Structure formats: structure tokens, C-alpha cells
What does this fold into?
Amino acid sequence: MPQEIAAAQETTAAAVPQWFANLFAHRRWVRRSKPFPHVYARDVFVPEFYARMAEEFARLRRERADAFVPVSANYSAEGFSLAGLRDGPLALFTSREWHDLIARVARVRATGDMDGSLHHHPPGSPYGWPHNDLNPAWFPGEAPGPAEVRLSDATVGIKNGARADGVPARETMRAVAVLFYLANPGWQQGDGGETALYEYIGDGTQQPLLVPPLDNSLIMFECTPRTWHTFAGGNTRPRNSAVMWLHRPKSEVVQRWGDDRIEYW
It folds into this structure.
């Protein structure tokens, strides 16, 4: 059975600033066990703040279109790195308050390292491929302190740690994936662009759970060897989202699942 989480309790479980708690609509966030454990939430933020987020996304698409670059080879999304959001409403996603809220809900001990981007899928984007996000991620410098967030940057290759001599870096693992849907006004069933969740992959016969890209909603899950998901494609209109990951020490992943379960790039 789905388990409801009181968002109000999560935002006040620790001594968070009042400004942060006031951004949330305090609707129920729901833990679901199928096809793998995940949390789903509608109406995450109060309408006024969500409207500012959507307006900022639209502004970036208009004024910074050149900063939306292909996310990866053979994947239809263009991305704008969260590291470029130093102010404005979307910068909330790079705050320590947001990091710690997601870590509490996911019940994960995260490092304070974050990576992610704003995603834009143009109409007619193809179906992706199932993947579990249990990937390594490299970050520059020392581990962030308890009030800090460390974002990926160009000095260290996030997938392989490539860097110049003398540049310090740390290898971590993706721990929690978050997809927040925004700037998809009027989405209706049949418009496509959902996120597909799978219980297993292999024979191609399984019907995935399709999560709709409804504005001001999110899905989040701990990254494990079984969290198979993908972009479902077939969108008749642009599909937009903010995608981000929290991270954990690699040693925890190796101890829990083994090095052979890590999806190296």
C-alpha cells in the first residue's frame, strides 16, 4: 500500500529556515513500492513560487538557449547545468536546505555533493533506454561541510575524474535521483513524455509505470541496481524538467551491492 509522507513534517523535521518551509504547499508526498520504491508528489510548491520557477525556466529558454546543450550521446534532452543557477527561484535546487530535505525523505546519508540540469525534450523525442543511475560521480575539492553544497564543475570530469595535475577530486556514487516537472502547461494523457519505471528489464514484455510530467510534481528514488527507468518519448509538445542527484560515498555502494553492480560510464 502507498504510504503518505506529511511534507509539512519533512520540512520541519530539522531546524530549517522559515523561508524554506514557506515555499512548500505541504501536500502529501506518497511512498510507493511498485515497480520499485519511489516517492511521488503533486503540488510540491505553493502556486506563487512555482509560477516564478516556470517563468525562470521560460526566460532561460529564450535568453540562454545556447546554454542548453546535449545531455549525452543518443539522448534527446538538452540540458542547462544547475551549476549555472546561482540566483533566482531555480537556484533552490542547489541549496543545502533542498539537499537535506531530499536526503531525509530518501533516508539516505548524502555527502553534500550535487549534480543535475534543467532538461528540455523537443516534440517528437524518441524513447530512451532503461538505466538505473547507479553511476559514479567525481567532484572537485574536499568534501563539503554540513552547511555547504558542492556542485560539479569543469575542472573535474564528473564521469571519470579527468583533471589537470594537482587538482584534488573525490569519487562518489549517485545516491538519490529527483525529477521535478515544470513548464509543461496543460499536459494531458496522450501528450507523451512520461517517465517510465520498470520492475525488471530483459524480455521487453513488461508494461512500465508511466509517471506524467505534470507541472509542479516530482518523483524521487534511491539509486539502486533495480531502479530501472527512462524517458518514455513520443511527446507531442516540449517536455521540461529539472533532474538532479544527491551522492553518497562509493564504499557504501560497494559494501551494500558490490563493485560489479556499479554502472561505470
User: Anything to note?
Assistant: Residues 47-63 form the longest helix (17 residues).
